[in-house]
Every structure is written in structure tokens, then in C-alpha cells.
DNA sequence: AAATGGCAAATAATCGATATTTTCCGCAGG
DNA sequence: CCTGCGGAAAATATCGATTATTTGCCATTT
């Protein structure tokens, strides 16, 4: 069983509810700011109130859900401001993490990135739905040697918050064919070459470009 | 009602349990790695199982509690490695936050810091227990104008993780009289003068010194 | 003596029901 | 016409009990 395997059916009722709710929020199935009534979700996921409640508590950690004491839960609001904050923070934190990761690079790590990159490319080419997951794996693998689990966890969390905007902007998968492939390959090459400055520069540019593109869409799509 | 008021008795049972458990973990009343049995806590806090359970879920977000599916909760482990990671991350993030905060400084902010500083000093002088809280308020106020709530939340979380080590190292309050007062005043002055470089330098130095001092203690005290 | 299998106790997770709180709506008074 | 005040309806929070899972122990086997 893989820690990154998000699809499976096992685990406690709480875990299942957590995964499903998380997916629904990230993909926009549950709209931003939407009230999350226990009763409604209970029926929808066909489980008891307790697991729902706990799952929502967990999602609060991920900042995908807001809890208001005594008046329940709702999905986190979105805003252009929030989107930009996430983008900027990602740049700041991933720059640090990437440099640390490259500084601690190993052969195995190098191979992991190459592999992650290949899998991502293949999924994209074949239009597989798993692409989104593999894309995250690629990015997190880049950072994975940074000896700072908390930092990595922050990056992962910000990644998820960001991807939610990608879905909300519609066309979850359509990168408007700016050449994203090439950007990824560029980052990969620089990382494998252990060139921290170049890799970081490319990564930042990758985020900034994607961000600028999305920023416009986010505004209209969610009409903020 | 103040968002920073941690003492009160009101709110839901969950909130009360959350505050009390949090305090117990941070102050070391519940030891690192200790198993947190619902039944035991239920009696100790005189409340039902549900609030305990939810409070523990919330504490998981704060990384003060680890949850292991199907086998309950335990307080987060500590280690010198983890301590150093927190220290380093705080330096990285607070440097960013402080510079942003100073860049957005207002008159009101300036007055808030002066006030926070004064209250902290007074509490220290009179040996008040509230000192720890006011110390946190002072540090967070320094950062408070940074237009990045997520970043501030990370800083707050790291602050709490760090202070836990202070308690664990024993002598929660004894700063060994390295002149901490003077360090605080120095940071205050630089911030009020809007000198971001100087303020940041002093803040980092403040953390690094405290960290170096604690680092030794943490090792012995918790015998890691 | 060490390993294995399988009870029994302990503990966690979940459920269904109750208590508490908020929300919503209509009505009286200004 | 707006504002504020009940009071029912809805929703949340909490409890007590039940179910499922894990853990610890001891007999049995090799």
C-alpha cells in the first residue's frame, strides 16, 4: 500500500470520508463558501455523522474547510487575493525547499525524478485522469530531499490549495498550451544537473507563468 | 471577545477541550509521544468522548498530536532534529513576514508593537504567568501587517511548536539572563524605525541565540 | 526456548438519539 | 418602512451505547 495512493476504498470511515470530501472540494464539486451540512453529506456519502464531522475537522487543517464554532463547516472561500498569496508563498517556500533538496541530492533521488517526470508525461500524452496526481508527485519529488518535513508539508498543502484554483478556473487540464512540457523538462534537466540556481529560476518561472495565466481566469470564473 | 484570548471558559465543549489539551501538550504536562486515550482524557477533562476526539483532530492540524488510523492519538514526538528544523523554518518565514510587515507598516501597527512590548516587559518584571502569552503577542504583532494570512498562520504554528521545546527543556521562563530584554527592545526600535534589514537581523539573532541555548538543553532534558 | 495461533480485555470508531444553539420568519411598535 | 423581538424550525454539538479493531497474554506446537 502506497502513502500516495488516494484512490483506495480502505481505511476507517473517517478516512474514506476525508478522501472523498477532499476530492470534491479540490475539484470544485463542492463550491467555495458552500455550507457543508452534516446531514446532507451524511446521506451523500452514506455514512454516519461522526466520520463526516471528523473528516471535516481534518480538512480544516488543510485549509480547505472553515469551521465556525457552533455553526458548522463550509468550504474555504476563494479570492484573487488568496490565489496570489498562495502563488507567492509557493515561490518563496519551494525556492528554499528545492535548493535544500538539490543540496542533498542522491542518485536515487535523481532516478525518482526522471521516473516521475516520465510517468507524468505519459499520462498527459494519453490523456489519463491520473495526470493531476502524477503532476503533484513530480513536483513534490523535486523537493523531496529537503531535510525538512514541515516545509515539505507546507509545500504540499499549498500545492493542493493552488490546484483547487486550477479546477475552479475551469479546464482543469488545459494548460492553454503554453509549452508546459518544455518547462517541466527544463526543470528536470536543471535539477538532474544539480544546478540549483537554474532549477529554481525555472521552477519560479513555471509558477509565475501558470499563475499569471490562471489569475485572469480565476477572477471571471468565480466572479470575485 | 478577543481572538487571542486563550484563557476563557466559554465556547463549545470542543473548544474548551482543545484549549486545555493544547496547553497540556505545550507545557509538557502530557509528555511527547504519550498515548492519548480518549477514556482517560474524558475523565480528566470531565467531558464526553466526541469533544475530546474533535479537539485531538484539531490539534493534529497544529502538529502537536499525531493520529494513527484505527489506533488513536498520541502527542507529537520531539527530537533535536525537529527542534532545529523548526528554528530554521522560523528564521526563514519570519524574515519574509517581518519584511512584508514593515513594508506595510502603519501608525496603528507601530503603536500596537510598542504596547505589546510594554505589556510583555511589565509581565516579565512582575513575574506574571501571562508572560508567555504576551511574548507571543509581541512577536506576532511584529509580523501582523504582512498581507499574507497563511504565512502568519505558519509562523504562529511554528511559534507554538518552538515554545513547547522551551517548556520541555525545563525552566519555561528562565532565559538564563542572556539579555533578552535588550534583544526585544532592539527589535522593537528597528521595527519602529522601519529599518527592515536591521530588524530582521536582530530578530534572526534573537532566535539563533535562544535556539543555540535551548538546543543543548533539549538534548539532555528529553534525552534524545 | 522460540514461534504461532487464538482467545479475552482494552481501546478506538461509529451510530442513533438528545440537548443546545442558531437561523429564519412574522409581527408589533416606532 | 424600518427595526427589534419572540418562537418555531433547522442545524449543530454532545452524549451514551454499540460495534469493530487492536493488543496482550497464554497455551500449544515445533
Give an overview in words.
2 copies of one chain form a homodimer. Chain A is mainly α. Helix content of chain A is 67%, strand content 4%. Chain A has helices at residues 13-26, 38-45, 49-61, 80-103, 107-125, 131-143, 149-168, 180-192, 196-221; strands spanning 35-36, 65-67, 73-75. A 3-stranded antiparallel sheet of chain A has the order 1-3-2. In chain A, helix 4 runs antiparallel to helix 7. The radius of gyration of chain A is 18 Å and the shape is globular. Mean pLDDT of chain A is 89; it is low at 1-7. The interface between A and B is medium-sized, with 27 and 27 residues. Chain B binds a DNA duplex (30 and 30 nucleotides) through helix 3.
This entry's quaternary arrangement is homodimer
Specify the number of helices of chain A.
Answer: 9
- What general form of chain A does the structure show? globular
**Rg of chain A, Cα atoms, Å:** 18 Å
**Approximately what portion of the residues of chain A adopt beta-strand conformation?**
under 5%
Q: Helix proportion of residues of chain A, in percent?
A: 55-70%
Largest sheet of chain A: 3 strands, antiparallel
Please give the order of strands in the largest beta sheet of chain A: 1-3-2
Would you count the extended β strands of chain A for me?
A: 3
Low-confidence stretches of chain A: 1-7
SSE class of chain A: mainly alpha
Most extensive interface, chain pair and sizes:
A-B, 27 and 27 residues
Please state the average pLDDT score of chain A: 89
Distance between the termini of chain A: 41 Å
**Topology as H/E string of chain A?**
HEHHEEHHHHHH
